[in-house]
Amino acid sequence: MATAGPGTSLLMDVRLRLSPAAEEVDTRGEPSVWRAPLPDGSRVWVATGHDAVRSALTAPSFRKPVVRGGERWERYLHFTDPRTTGSIVRSMLNADGEDHRRLRALAAPALGPDRLREAAAHAARLAEHQLDLVSGHGRADLVHDFAHPFAVRVVTELYGYPPEFTRRVLRLPRWSPAPVFSAAGSPERERYGAEREAMSALLGDLVAAKRRAPGPDPISEIIARADSAGLDHGQVTSTLFILLVAAYEPVTDFLTTSLYCLWQRPELLSDPGAAVAGLSELLRYTSPLAVTMPRFAVEPTELGGVELAPGDAVVLHLALANRDPERFRDPNRLDLTRRVDHDLAFAHGPHYCLGTRLAVLLCRTALEAVLRRLPGLVPTQPLENLSWQPGSFGPLSHLHVTAGLKELPVAFEPQPPRRPAVEAAV
Predict the structure, then answer these.
(1) pLDDT, tens digit (0-9, with 9 covering 90-100), for 331-343
(2) Which InterPro entries match (predicted)?
(3) Which of 8, 14, 81, 249 shows its CA 20 to 30 Å from the CA of 321?
């Protein structure tokens, strides 16, 4: 039975994967699909080869857990009360086929060209404002003082959140669900349950407020289209949930992991403009959305040279697929001049990230603003002491869908604000 090769095992640790030491790791000839043990004694398939991952993202022989996960995966998704669960998990992320198409069509206009042009102007303004609040101090936490509030404010303003709801989002912890295979009753699962309930309550209140006072904003439009299409409350709130969290969380993780990479390669920071110009390579290299939720074979299926039986689960490791030496030359080298195409930073196929253009816009704006406005930027802790989001490293049983830092304390040369600091709009 195939197991992870030695190089693949090393690259599962995001700290090594993003460091120069990764250049010494060679995964040529290692299995592109392999099996890993889980805490309950079962095993799961893991796809790390580019072709295997790309195939599983498009093949009709694989389905999402809500569609074909069986009792075990129902328990994973449905450990909160039915209403709370249904208000979070019933988005296009967990749907296939016609249900997926309907839910994607429901969300798509919120990210249309006109909305993105509006978001670009808001993003530039809010990045400057957020940095005005810290630039004179010479110290900050780039997660809590910049990246997270910046991304939340851009996204909620774009979608039409009333200010009091943006404040509620900012008061919530960063969305950090339990690792994919966390055991029922574990502290991580209990924490995630409480956070899921708080998010569900917020989204329910938001929909109720928009029903009372609809406006010319994406949330009101989503509610109206859902009503016309006969979709229910859980499908509406789940759509709003994925539009919110999938837009702001990867931006924070991208900024923190990009700086982690660049600080270990000072020659790449000598020209901040080159780092911003190399955004596509940074996205490939950091892959903030590290893995997908499991998919399930619905028929006997060959994937990456192994045979999967109906009901077998497979985790698609996007970050390692973006390091496949069969697809990328010197894949573990960060080359800001690399021409990147067919990477899987935003997945592929029917589930290709609907918010890709918004995510790229926010990642570029955040990185450019920080490198421009905070000269002499350095971490105030050794890189090896930084605290990572759950599941960024360790055995597969601790795997989490995203990878990034919990906090990023930094120092820089104090700079006067570009304009008089004013209270944030929300």
Answers:
(1) 999 999 999 988 9
(2) Cyt_P450, Cyt_P450_B, Cyt_P450_sf
(3) 249
Taking the C-alpha atoms of residue 350 and residue 63, their distance in angstroms, rounded to an integer, is 12
Residue 296's contacts (CB-CB under 8 Å, 6 or more residues apart) are 62, 63, 64, 65, 67, 68, 69, 70, 73, 311, 312, 313, 314
Comparing CA positions, the residue from 177, 179, 181, 176 lying closest to residue 36 is 181
Q: How many residues are recorded in the chain?
A: 426
Q: Where are the beta strands (DSSP E) in 79-151?
A: 139-141
CA atoms in the 13 A half-sphere facing the CB of 73: 21
CA pair distance 345, 347, nearest whole angstrom: 6
3-class DSSP assignment, residue 46 = strand
| Residues 303 and 279: beta-carbon distance below 8 Å | no
CATH number for region 6-411: 1.10.630.10
Lowest mean pLDDT among 118-127, 180-189, 413-422: 413-422
CA-wise closest residue to 62 among 49, 41, 47: 47
Please tell me the pTM assigned to this model: 0.93
334: CB partners within 8 A, 6+ apart: 261, 265, 268, 281, 282, 285
Look at the block and give the residue holding tokens 């000839």. Answer: 29
Q: Which token pair is 164?
A: 């009091």
